[in-house]
Amino acid sequence: MYIVSVLVEHPVQSLDMTFDYLSHESLLKGVRVFVRFGYQKIIGYVEDVKETALSKTELEQQAGFHYQYIQEVIDQEPLLNEELQQLALQLSKLTLSPRIACLQAMLPSQLKPSTNHSVGLKLQTVACFLQEGKAKTKKQQECLDYLKTHSPTPIKDIPYSKNILDQLVKQGLIEYQKQEVYRKPLDFFQTTNQDIILTNDQQKVVDGIIAHPKRVALLHGVTGSGKTEVYLALARYFLNKQKSVMMLVPEISLTPMMVKVFKERFGEQVAILHSRLSQGEKYDEYRRIKRQEVKIVVGARSAVFAPLENIGLIILDEEHDASYKQESKPRYLTSQIAKIRAQTHQATVVLGSATPSLESYSRALKGVYDLYELKNRINQMPLPTVEIVDMVNETRQRNYSLFSRRMKEQIQATIDRHEQVILLLNKRGYATYLQCQDCGEVVKCPHCDVTLTYHKDEHQLKCHYCEYVQSYPQSCAHCGSTHFKTVGYGTQKIEEELEKTFLNAKVIRYDVDTTKNKNSHFQLLEQFKKQKANILLGTQMIAKGLDFENVTFVGVLNADLSLNVPDFRASERTFQLLCQVAGRSGRGSKAGTVLIQTYNPEHYAITCASHHDYQAFYQQEMLYRQKALYPPYCHMVSILIQSKHEDILQIACQDIKNYLLAHTHQCKILGPAHSVIYKMQDLYRQRILIKFVQGKDVYEALKTMNDFYNKKQKGKVTVICDFNPYSQI
Ligand SMILES: Nc1ncnc2c1ncn2[C@@H]1O[C@H](COP(=O)(O)OP(=O)(O)OP(=O)(O)O)[C@@H](O)[C@H]1O
Ligand SMILES: [Zn+2]
Ligand SMILES: [Zn+2]
């Protein structure tokens, strides 16, 4: 008899514990099983198996309760190997999240323990040679000879008709079989297999990184300095050493470009993992990796958990990007996981960016990371010149348009030169909100403490924080008036304005709303590359990685959007966004320019970006972080406390604060205070912020508090500890 400890996903509480079941046969750790839990049959994960000589009755006498048997074993072999099972435990500890949540985060959705694997294998028919023999006709004989040397072959690839094959099957000379085929995403790229010859600067970086294996390298290379080629050369080097390579990129925005170059260079050896793949593709790509049939994985955040073995190199491109932080359980930082895996595999980590995060850059200056720099663009092309427009001045001059006079001039001139424009507005939708013209009431989300965004295409109001959608209101809920005005503007409105303002303007809008369909990313960018449009308008999705040689003008419509948010990283984000988007201009043989519209023309994030001066920005921002005590000068944990009931929430917040005060030393505890969005999805939300330099006792106190709340309160209050918080919303 075996006692099997099973991790289950509790439907209500977020328990982090196993339950014991019995089994007559031994099971492998990590396989999924069906078990009874209360009145339900649910999926669980085998975490431990112990053999026992006792019978069921004896065991029950000892334990004082009845044991259930495992009902069904789902997997023949564990989905996660030993390394990844260990990593799940480590992740659970680091982030104070239930182990089951960690396992779930590590698997593609079709394989998550809570769902049945509804995605099946895709099969195709192949013809297999059986035996020599005399076929009835000459053609049939030829076909048989062909199959003798090409067996098995998918019947669609055999240069003989189905009829001939059927005849051979009848004669018992060949047979049909079903064989698994992989659904391969983006298989349309041609492999070129040719690496570009690196410049001296690039070669030096590659040599340096290779000479210091097992280290973390920070590659600080200006926009257009050819970081991608450095990644490709490093990947080639590690592949030649029979090692595998992980290439991570920020979410969907950048994936298309990077996927394309990796597929072109390494073809069949590349698997792709990102959210836009179909269920079947994800399932197949995952299995190709697991079976060690590929050597390179290109993917977004969760690809850091890919079951690659023998990893030699892990690259995080655009390492400063906030999408590397997972904002739901388990709230991990991708670089942290990359470093853990690199240590296990004795692998090298490369963090690349034109605008490294302050945390990474300060580590590099301290020697924790190795610093490599690419200070110039390829072919010594100059970085674009950047001009700032003070929008206060425009209003003074009675220009109330969304475009400054200079912006209009520049866009028109670029179109007239038959060159292309990229325009950034970091806000999607048509209008920011809808307001009653008579009483001033603003239309808000009934579930969240935010205004609804008007989307003109669909003539709907949408909440950007929950799934809530409503049609355009007939009348004001407050006064009954039927007159509304739209306030603020998003990409949809700009698109309309552009087409009105500029003759011959053909606009491609690139944001979450226009890139929903599969491969629409590729298609829109391909159209722009082929110059089917002269303006690419988008949210921050267009700021990174894009490399179009005909783009000579970049306009930023409202640089203040990211500056005026209550977040200690607001300046850093703004600087990064502006440098990145400016970097899209003048990447070909023609010089580029950039225009930034702002109401804060003197702000250092904006002036430093306009001079492409990372050092100056770094110095000034570090002073602020030191004075106000923010990372990298301290660690931070944000505790989000949520409840449906405001009164229960208040009490819990005070309890938690008191507990932390009593159990921690030498740290600053701020709050509780309303979260930036106090109500979201019908939950009220408060935050407590802890800042500390040395934090063993902080971790212990949080762990105890976290366990207490998530077990005892039965869902009335939830507490989420966010180490390395990136969002204060
Ligand atoms: N050694 C080389 N010889 C010729 N062209 C090169 C070389 N290396 C890179 N390039 C070209 O230079 C351009 C810029 O390179 P890449 O896109 O890698 O820049 P990057 O550093 O990633 O910039 P960003 O941070 O802006 O994305 C690309 O068109 C690339 O093909
Ligand atoms: Zn009204
Ligand atoms: Zn909402």
TrEMBL record:
Its EC number is 5.6.2.4. GO terms for molecular function: 3'-5' DNA helicase activity; ATP binding; ATP hydrolysis activity; DNA binding; zinc ion binding. It comes from the Bacteria. The keyword Transferase does not apply. One of its GO terms (cellular component) is primosome complex. Binds 2 zinc ions per subunit. Zn(2+) 1 binds at C436, C439, C476, C479. Gene3D superfamilies: P-loop containing nucleotide triphosphate hydrolases, PriA, 3(prime) DNA-binding domain. Keywords: ATP-binding, DNA replication, DNA-binding, Helicase, Hydrolase, Isomerase, Metal-binding, Nucleotide-binding, Primosome, Zinc. Residues 208-374 form the Helicase ATP-binding domain. It catalyses: Couples ATP hydrolysis with the unwinding of duplex DNA by translocating in the 3'-5' direction; ATP + H2O = ADP + phosphate + H(+). The keyword Metal-binding applies. GO terms for biological process: DNA recombination; DNA replication initiation; DNA replication, synthesis of primer; double-strand break repair. PROSITE patterns: HELICASE_ATP_BIND_1 (PS51192). SMART domains: DEXDc, HELICc. Coiled coil: none annotated. Zn(2+) 2 binds at C445, C448, C463, C466. It is an enzyme of class 5 (isomerase). Component of the replication restart primosome. PANTHER family: PRIMOSOMAL PROTEIN N. Belongs to the helicase family. PriA subfamily. This is Replication restart protein PriA. It comes from Longibaculum muris. The lineage of its organism: Bacteria, Bacillati, Bacillota, Erysipelotrichia, Erysipelotrichales.
